Amino acid sequence: MELVTPSIGLLFWSSLSFFILFIVLTKFAWKPITKTLKEREDSIDEALKSAEIARLQLESLKTDNQRLLNEARVERDKLLKEANEIKDQILAKAKGDAKSEGDKMIAAAKEAIEMEKVNAMNQLKTQVAVLTVDLAEKILRKKMEDRSQQEVFVNDSLKNITLN
Amino acid sequence: MTHIKSLKSIYYTTKTSFLTIVFCFISVILFANQPSTNTIADTTSVGLDSEHANSNATHEESHGEEKFNINKTIMEHISDAHQWHLWAHTSLPLPVIIYTNKGIEVFSSAHFGHGEESHTYQGNYSYQLIHEKIKVVNEQGEVNPNIMVLDFSITKNVASMLLAVICLIIIFLSVSKSYAKRGVGAPKGLQSWIEPLIIFVRDDIAEPNLGKRTAKFMPFLLTIFFFIWFVNMLGLIPFFPGGANVTGNIAVTMVLAVITFIITNLNGKKTYWGHIFLPHVPWWLYPLMVVLEIIGIFTKPIALMIRLFANITAGHILVLSLVCLTFIFKSLTVGIVAAPFIVFISAIELLVAFMQAFIFTMLAALYIGMALEEPAPEAHH
Fold first, then answer.
1. What is the mean pLDDT of chain B?
2. I need a labelling partner for B109 at 20 to 30 A (CA). Which of A89, B50, B165, B294 fits?
3. pLDDT score recorded for residue B33
């Protein structure tokens, strides 16, 4: 029975010590500790959240990059194709141009050659004529050195002329 | 929500009351009646020392040593004392503070001496320590029952409790300082050892029962948890700074239970009082139900009080009984056999020390949670 009879002294001292403990620890330990714990949890929470956001951003950045890359590739392909076409066109045009130009030049050259030929021919003719006249003159002079021959010639010529 | 809570409550109550019953049963066997214990002691000593059987009593008396009495030894260990027994015949005297109709008196308990016969201390009256109670005696050494003595002495339990309070304040102020220093950084040292416990109390005890009102009651729950646990552990240390059976003293557990009772009922909301005075039963059951509900208000803290007291006292008794076996049988062999059992039971007591702190805090949180309960949705009824 003694074991289950509370003594007044112990009741008093336990109440007092518990209250002191309660007040001191509440003010100096529990409040600051629970507050810091809460703050820490919040900060961890926030860090996790921002990490998640950063991850998502990175992911969207990645897909963006991929998209850009793909676009660039398509663009490049397109450009290359276009360039090829242009090249072909230019080449074709250049070929055509060159051909017509060449043809033109050849024609002009031919004409010039023809002209030169005619000229040369004319000159040759003239030259031949002059040379022929000179030669004829020289021959004539040789032949006509003596009077008799001159007479013979004149006579012959006269003979030929008469009746025409 | 209510059902879950009450189920939980029933679960813990059943579990702990089972333990309590088992321990109480053991203690009842040990203390039921003094003569029977003595008989056991007598017969065993007779059995072992059959040669000295006849001269046993006279032999021991002639040596001036009293016969070993297990009941008395254990009771001395688990009850409060005005001196702190250190070893053999050495005790630490503690201050005695008494109040009589002639005022307050303070003196050292050394004045009572130690041993069976208390010396008389001459103060305002003549005082003697009879069975650890301070009584006024007349010249003939007879107790005068007319003068009331209120004993506010710093007894062994009070001293142990004050020591625990000082230790707890030192520990938690240093932990708090670590928090102030490190802020939201990672905990270190003692702080990292205490932190999981604080989080345990918050997440596993307070929050499931109190929900968003957790913060308001955290200081109380933390204080009660760490106080009970620390004092329990201190009581398990077998030598000087420990060894007092503080939480196994009904006065201490009563104070803790009364505080829980006050907090619970001061925070009682409309739903809580509604359940008590207007229970959801047919009107003609009211006289019965209201009485039961009102009794229920008081049985909860009483259960808290008795559970803690009985568990801790039973633990002390169990360990002491095993220790005493050696002295009952006066045999070294028994001691060697008993030693592993003592270690085993002490290890279990370490667990019980934590368990009881946890259960007390858990149930306190549960009771407060029930008092705070918001009105249930109409569909519920």
1. 79
2. B165
3. 36
With CA atoms as reference, the chain A residue closest to B182 would be A36
DSSP letters, B60-109, are: HHHTTPPPP-HHHHHHHHHS--SEEEEETTEEEE-EEEEEETTEEEEEEG
Whether residues B146 and B176 fall in one domain: no
A32–B250 C-beta distance less than 8 A: no
Number of domains into which chain B is organized: 2
pLDDT at B4: 52
Higher-scoring residue by pLDDT: B60, B315: B315
Together in a domain, B320 and B251? yes
User: Token pair of B287, please?
Assistant: 């006289």
Give CA–CA dist B10/B168, Å, rounded.
32
- Point out the domain boundary residue: B111, B128, B151: B151
- A13 and B CB contact within 8 Å: yes
Contact B219 A22 (CB under 8 A): yes
Examine residue B185 and state whether it is found in any structural domain, yes or no.
yes
For residues B271 and B140, state if they share a domain.
no
Of A81-90, B261-270, B271-280, minimum mean pLDDT range: B271-280
Q: Does B377 touch chain A (CB under 8 A)?
A: no
pLDDT at A95: 92
Considering its fold, how many domains does chain A have in total? 1
Q: Are residues B306 and B361 in the same domain?
A: yes
Tokens 């085993």, residue located: B344
Which tokens in the block code for residue B88? 């053999």
Name chain B contacts of A47, Cβ cutoff 8 Å: none
**What mean pLDDT is predicted for residues B202-219?**
89
> Which residue, B103, B123, B151, sits at the end of a domain?
B151
* Mutation target vs A (from B129, B165, B307, B309; most A CBs, 10 A cutoff): B165
Complex ipTM: 0.76
How far lies A28's CA from each of A20, B19, B172, B186, B351, in Å? 12, 37, 8, 20, 29
Residue type, B230: F
Domain residue limits at B129 = 90-151
Residues A75-82 have a mean pLDDT of: 95
